[in-house]
Amino acid sequence: MENKPITLPNNRKSATTDDSKSEMQMVLAKMMEEKYTYTYKKLVVPMSMRSIYWKFFGFPATDDGDILTKVKIVCILCKTQIAYNRNTSNLRMHLQNKHAQELLELEATNPPRRQVLSQETKERRAQKKLLKTGLTSTQHIYTTNADGTVQIDGDIQFVTDPNVSLSNIEDDITIGQPLRVMIKSGSNIGSNSQNVAFLMPEDNSINQSSIDGKTVSDAIAEFIIMDLQLPEVVEGRGFQRLVATLRSPCEIPSKNKLEEEIIPKIYDTFRESVATTLSCITSEVGLTIEEWKSNSDERFVTVSVYYQNSGEPVLECKVLSTIHAPLDWEESQWGNTIDSLLLDWDLKIERITAVVVATSRTELLNALTNRGLTLVPCLLYTLQVCAQACFESPEVATILSKCRAAIGAIISHPAASAALAMQEQLLELEENAMLMDYPPVWTSTYNMLEQMVLRRNIVTSILESMEGVDQEIVDLTNDQWKIVEDLVNVLEPFKVTIMTLSEEKMPLISLLKPLLWQLVSSHLKIKENDSEKAKSFKESLSDMLYDRYADYNVTLLLQIATTLDPRFKQLPYATEEDKNSVATDIKEMLTKLIQEESGDSISIKVEEEPLNKKSRVSGMEFLLGGLCSIKSGMPAEEKADLELVQYHSESTAPLDYCPLQWWAKISAKCPNLGKLACKYNCVPACCAPPSRIPAEVQVLYDTRRTALPPHLIDKLLFLHSNHTTKQLHTRQIIDIFPILEINIDDVDVPLKNPTVSYLDIFFLISSILMHILDVAIDINLAIRYLLAEKVIYFTWTTVFIFLPSFINVIISRRMQQQDDKTNETSDSTDLKCIHAILSKKLYCIILIAFQLTPVLRYYRTLKYALNAYKFNKQNNRNAQRRYYLKMLKEDQDVALLRVSECFLEAAPQQILQLTILLKHDHNDINFEFVHQIASITSSLGSMGWAMANYHRSIRLAQQDKLNISIIGIVLQFIWHFCITVSRILSLSILASIWPIYTIIGCIFHWISMTLWIIIDSHGILEFCKDSNHAPHCSPKIKERIYSILFSMVVGVIHVFIYLNTIDGSTLLKHVFFYIICFLENIIATVIWIYVSSNEVKNSWYFNILIIFCVIPFLLGIIAMIIYYGVFHPSLKHQNCIDK
Question: What GO MF annotations does this protein's record show (predicted)?
């Protein structure tokens, strides 16, 4: 093996190497997001794209008309983003599905031209076109002014596309010599994401000798898995030279090492991960079974499972296994294989809603049916079988043979190929679109025939002018051309169906009934002007579609699924009799589900028991008993009727709306019907995911899959489907560029090691106890004022306890409403309990009286922490991560509530108690004095910790934020504690002298801060926003009122401390706020010095308070500067990169 090391130039200084490394790190830090977002100002169409359908589409571009990306195109009419596949088929399909009237008018005013041009005319047009190109500076045929954004998935692929301008990305990467970043419209196996390429500068001086061989092995293994490559690719000299060019010296793993060690190890790891994920699923699942044939003519069956995680409106898919399936297997062998597979993955048959099958093996189908499973034919496989039946008829097979021969003759002849390209340009046809088909994928054959029909005159003319070609092999008669045209017209609805499936996020079985009904009742309906051949095609296709879905159980399943799809409630896909029958079945299932959930049988028994006992009738019962009967719980049947009525009263969802998201949004209104819908929403319409449906992707995937060696098929297909997910993007980048590893704290990636320690649990329990103790001290103090007949002090103390507590209940209620909308989790019992507590008046009074709102949230945080700890002990990583993230989210909420409680209740309470002390107890130290000092000291510490914990929690809960270190938390505590002490003492000494003026000054400060917050109230608007309100619409009046009220609450906090309500730079805000506060403190201190009475001036605490009004404030500012200058997480991260 020739493996010549390639040495990169290394004549630059080490500082330059560090700079290059830093530059690369900065690039990756920006590129490691899951999606790219481009903001465009125009939609443009280049001059070379002259199809009439481009009138309603365009590429995103800048103000100057520079195209940002050709990965996606945007519809001018509805702003829908469509993947650009280098042809106009999906453009026309989109217009046909969404803008039929505009498409009709467009084609009416621009009919397709099929005239035969003379040679003179061709030459004249070619000269005219060249002249136009030379004279005009116009770059685009269409330009539309439109603002918007386009999102593109981020992954890695080395590509080039000179038509794509990404200057805006390079501008964002502020480095001296940026990497060139390009995007290409291409498809990956199993993914439709478009990828980012990193092109190294030629003078890159990174020390390649530091590259770890294990990283290269991992990268090559991922390359083989993600692209379904053969392991023997590493033995190719071209591949070895490529790797040596990129990284030298390095060790390339051998084919045997990949097959026997690396790939099996990755497989075992991911198999365990998938098994853990599936073990946590409690809802119903759907299975798919797809049969396919390898290059060695061996048969295989791939089994996948589809499921929906609780609270997530997304249908997930995992490939379980690929089984070798010899043709001589009997039903018993298939039965044993199925039982073993389900046992291995711990899947219960009763939890499987249906099995989508893409096979005609009778033995396999019988084995599945005998186990009580409902079998739904895969729609893609059904369309393939139907189209293949048409292609295999003798007449069509002969025509296909001639079409392939004609295309082969033209593309292999340079002059003919050039003539074809010129004619396509002159007739404004898509260039290089007439390609030879791949028979196992029927859409490729259809595309070949469609392009042949469009170029009938061109192809005929070119073939006639070619010498040495047997015309009998390539020439099609007029009758044969007519058959091709009929076949293209008849199969066009099938292609539209394929396009519809590929546009879905995940096509569900609820689509099948409407699609089949539309195909059979409309598109395949025989018309008077149809030819005999077209009639024959339509009849055979219609019969095949009907026969494959004729089974009663399949029909019932599809009708139920379609009825529960909010998009198709009003479609006439079935007779009224069938709809009524299905409605009855749905009601029975729903009633049974409600009974199981609520346990009606127990409640009936309890209700009937008192009737057997004779009890004394009270006077009220004797007089009014006949009028006021005891109302028992609503029967399950009535609940079912109410939910069904509610469901049908909801407006029909748009056809492009995801039903899973619709049900997630409406589940609060129809909770039980939503659970029933989930049972049917876990079954896909076809075995292949949407990204594998387009013809070119199908061909690429099938050719690579069929070439896999039998001993690696199961492992590679499993890893390819389950391993190439979004969670690998960051790790993949670091694996490919190990020298660029970014140093961050482990706590910055909570999903990596989401462990809950005894210390975390101790802190949560301590927080609960400290809060209860703080409340108990305040209430005890109020009671002591009352017993001492100090009514005014008792009144003010009580107001400062109950009013902030009432506000906290409102804020907590708002948080709970947001949680109800976004977190439909499995903890339904806990959520219902919390919801009931916050909505019942009696419970709210108790919460307000004893300030228990934060305790309620602390309880949930503690519960999630204990669950995470429990699942960690059980090695259930998936559940552990889930509860750990819930704990972080709840901890963030309780931190905000604690801040609100501290500065709305504790801070005013401290000012009140200090003012009382300063006015009446100049030198007396008694039990009441000690009690008050204890209350003040504990509250001051609580406020400092509340602010530090708040900043820690919001960063810990957000994955895009780096976390605060221990030293940073300590500095945060010192900063906020000192500032709070200074502010409260300054206001207290002023209130002890001029209480009325102090209140006026605080009100003025509060109003100013509130206005400041309202001016920049985006964060508060988001908090107060109605989740049902469209995000792009302006806030409603009600939402604005709520935001103003909440701004007023935050304004009270700003009397004491600064609380940032919107993400962004805070430097100028801090400078402005703390200058004002420092000036206020100085004014209060000066007034205290010059206006205090002689008795106060002679007291022991006079000078101490002067010092504590100023010095702690300066200490707090110093702590803040040290924190932002040295220990702020983003700065720490930047320093790690610079190193």
Answer: DNA binding; protein dimerization activity; zinc ion binding
